[in-house]
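The authors assume throughout that readers already know how a fold can be written as discrete tokens. For illustration, here is how one protein appears when written out as sequence plus structure tokens.
>
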Amino acid sequence: MTADEVAPETKGVTAELLGTVDLGPELDGMEGRRLRLRRFTFEPGAVFGPVHDHKGRPGIVYILQGTITDHRNGVATDYGPGLGWPEDRNTVHWLENKGTVPAVEVSVDIIQEQARPQ
């Protein structure tokens, strides 16, 4: 996907944080990082945009129901139900539900904790 490609703004998507784990005490070199689990629901016609990357935020997706279309590098790929797509440092994409029923995914990623104000 190039900087010239534009995805619609996000609409019809809800996200629920299911849990996090502080990785600092668990693994050397992971201070300030958390493992995060979220559930996303995409209503019919929903879009998760704009185009975004996953640099420093690797993850993987599993589709519980419905179909989600992943747009990257000019290619649209449908996923679901089952294992979805990887999200690594080379991922630049946006998502949509072109179906007529809600699509639900779970997403697991590693995030950098936000600095807290002093």
Remarks:
- Residues 11-112 form a domain with the Jelly Rolls fold (CATH 2.60.120.10).
